[in-house]
Each structure stands twice: as structure tokens, then as C-alpha cells.
Design goal:
Elements: E1 2-3, E2 19-23, H1 25-36, E3 41-44, H2 50-58, E4 62-65, H3 68-71, E5 78-80, E6 86-88, H4 90-96, E7 105-111, H5 113-116, H6 119-132, E8 133-144, E9 155-161, E10 164-169, E11 189-190, H7 193-199, E12 205-210, E13 215-221
Parallel strand pairs: 3-4, 3-7, 7-8
Antiparallel strand pairs: 1-11, 2-10, 5-6, 8-13, 9-10, 12-13
Helix pairs in contact: 4-6
Amino acid sequence: MRFFWSSSNQPATPETPQKLRRRSSGMGEISRLLNSQEGLCVLDMGTTSPSNIAFFTGKGHKSYSEDLLCSSLDPALRIQDAAGKSVVDSKKFLEENLVYPNAHFDVVLCWTLPDYMEESLVKPTIDRLWSVMKPGSVLLAFFHTRDAGPDSTCYRYHVTGGDMLEMQEVKFAPPGRPSSEKRSPRLQRVFNNRHIENLFRDFASIKFFLARDNIREVLVVR
């Protein structure tokens, strides 16, 4: 696993984030599942996307959103670990987020969340997702490859149908700072295949898709 360390803050840019498009093999498989059944519970891990909500509910599914990356930036969650390093309190984080009954979701869209979350939160979050997913349910996650640099753009993904996604750059203002200082979050690490397999070791199966934009797509079955 390759880690990236924070550099000095760059000035915020005022331009409006542009939307791009990409083809996703993993989303293609998710779409076939969404088209073959009704009444599924879908968890979308990102800022609220009206287009995603409309897409899922339009197919007769229940849509839930959790912006865990933004929630993890809450200064009230920070504690010091045994070495005196400032980390996010994973126990408190999970007391306030992903609070659902066990075996609730049929589909989880995790996107690139593990690459951007603090290390202390990644495995506890995946473990909680395992608990709230139904046996046989599916999770789609995207992981950067080693060719990606620490300043790789963080995107919010919007489902447009089939295997196509719209990508919009994500920007946050640092805690306590005005919204005019929004900037894209920094890539925290790059997982290799072995680390990804270990992250999802409690799941029943895992399938990799290699894309052309320095992204590996991972589809796992609970």
C-alpha cells in the first residue's frame, strides 16, 4: 500500500466543477441487477445526488445517501492515538454514521471512498458495511492504481443508466473555513490488489475490473 502525505494548502479555485463521463464495467453489472428486480435498498456513498435518487426511485428502489468523507472531517471526531498522533475516533464516527439495521441493503455504491478516508476509518467502515448488507448483496468500489498521484481529482459519481457515469469534481472547505475556500480532497493512499482482497476478506467473493483512467473497479458479494 502506498501512502501520500499532505502538502501545503493550495489556493482555492473559483471555477464551477465540470462533469465528465466514464464507462464502468462494474456499474454495468449493478444496472442489470437494478433492472431485474424491484424494491431493492440502495446505499449511495457520497454527497446527495438528486439525479441518483431519481434514477433509483424511478426503478422502484429505495435510495439512501451517506456522505462519509465529509462527515469524517468533523473536528469533534479527532482524538490522539497511543503514539500521540491525531486520528479520527472510529467508534464515535460509526455511532453517528451508517446507523442502519443489520442486513438492510441490497446494493452499496462505495465509489472511491476508501482511497480518500483516513486510515483509521477504512477497515471499520467496510466492516460496518458488511453488517448492514444482506447476504448475497453487492458492493461496488473504485480504487486508484499506482499511476495515480496524490493530487488525483476526487469525483462524485452520478448514475446515468447502463454502464455510464457522470463524474463531478468534489470540493470541501476545511473545517471552520468559509465555503469560498473549497478544495478537492487529497488522495490518502493507493491499495494494491492484496490489500483490497484483505479489506474485503469477510465477503463471499470479489471481482476486479481494470479501467483506463488509473482506476480499478471492484465488485464484491456479501
